[in-house]
Structures are given as structure tokens and as C-alpha cells.
Amino acid sequence: MTDILVLYYSRFGNTARMAREIAHGIESVDGARARVRTVAPVSTVCEATHDAIPEEGPPYADHNDLSECAGLALGSPTRFGNMAAPLKYFLDGTGDLWASGGLIDRPFTVFTSTASLHGGQETTLISMALPLIHHGMIYLGLPYSEPELTSTTSGGTPYGASHTAGGDSQQPLTDAERKLCRAQGKRLANTALKLGTDVR
Ligand SMILES: Cc1cc2nc3c(=O)[nH]c(=O)nc-3n(C[C@H](O)[C@H](O)[C@H](O)COP(=O)(O)O)c2cc1C
């Protein structure tokens, strides 16, 4: 069984819902299994600490999750057109993996949720791709053979799946957004299996 990491941060649950759809797409591929992980919030109070185990939802990721998985789907809500700080903080701690070249040639894909349709989906997706490109990973977007990429009136971009959550962050995923999440997970799993990355 090949593990694919779905790693995300979510404050209001939208990016978490996308992560579940992407995991569903990954697990539609024979031989692939989704490993879903999140990251802890960060605090401006430097002595603040967080419980080692979250109260609910998936466990927090560690570096073993990255090195043991043959592919990565990375998700974040937008923060001023950029990825959220907790995810950036986690990635900024992966210098050891960068130095060892541990993630070179592994495929990755990115997904995001924003409040508004033009609130920075593409820039957020690209902001998440940048550190992974530095790691030597291979960027997988969404191809236009997915019909929802052309027909969507909500989220969905060639740079990765996206969701428009609305000003109150309460809008559910549309059918197009859900289908694109699943297609993205499926493509990531198929590609990881074809590349046959040795993660032992
Ligand atoms: C500090 C901050 C900055 C934000 N910046 C943007 C933004 O630039 N564009 C936008 O559309 N939404 C912005 N939002 C809204 C969030 O992206 C939205 O709440 C998020 O998509 C919900 O995802 P979640 O449910 O996974 O937390 C911002 C929210 C916060 C708290």
C-alpha cells in the first residue's frame, strides 16, 4: 500500500472538507491510501504551547509523515493571498529534509479555500507550491480535461482545487469544487504509483 499525505490547516472547516474529498479521490485508486494530517495553530505569545494531540480531527503532522509518503496534497485557507502561518511554520521547519534531498521527485498538489472568489486563490496556491519546488518536488495541477475546470462558477483552478467559502465561511462545497478535489486526489495517487517512489 502506498501512503499519500494530505496535510492541511483549517480554522473554520472548509479546507478540512476539501482535504476529505481529496483523500476520497486518493483512495479511489487501487494501492493508494490517504494519510490525513493537520498542523497546530501558532501564537504570537512566545511562551504559549498547544496540546501535543488535537482535541478532534486528524493528528498533527511530523517529518516522518512527509518522508514516509510517496506524494503530498497540501491545503490552506488564504491569509491575505498567501498560505496561513501555521502551515508556513511547519514547512519552515523542514530544512533537514531539504538538506538530505528527502522529498526530491515526489509529486505534490495544493488546494485552498478563500472567502471571496477573487480573494487570492491562485496566489495562495502558488505560495504553497514555492517551498515544495525548493524541495525538488514535482508540481501537479489540474488539467482542463476535467470539465468542471471550464464550467465552474465557484472555485477550481488549473493550479489546484479551490473553494469559495463566503464572507462568513459557511458556504458548502459546490459539486464542481468537490469533483475537482476528488480528481486532484486521484491524479496525485495515480502519479505517485506510476513514479514508484521508494519511501522506505
Ligand atoms: C487574517 C485573515 C486573512 C484573510 N485573507 C483573505 C483574503 O485575502 N482573501 C479571501 O478571500 N479571504 C481571506 N480570509 C478568509 C479566509 O480565507 C476564509 O475564512 C477561509 O477560506 C476559511 O477556510 P477554513 O474554513 O479552512 O478556515 C482571511 C481570513 C483571515 C482570518
Automatic annotation (TrEMBL):
What superkingdom does the record give? Bacteria
Q: Which UniProt keywords apply?
A: Flavoprotein, FMN, Oxidoreductase
Its EC number is 1.6.5.2
Q: Where is the Flavodoxin-like domain?
A: 4-188
Root EC class: oxidoreductase
Q: Name one GO molecular function term.
A: NAD(P)H dehydrogenase (quinone) activity
- Needed co-factor(s): FMN
A GO CC annotation given for this chain: membrane
Q: Which Pfam families match?
A: FMN_red
UniProt region (Disordered), positions on chain: 150-174
Q: Which family does it belong to?
A: Belongs to the WrbA family.
- Provide the protein name: NAD(P)H dehydrogenase (Quinone)
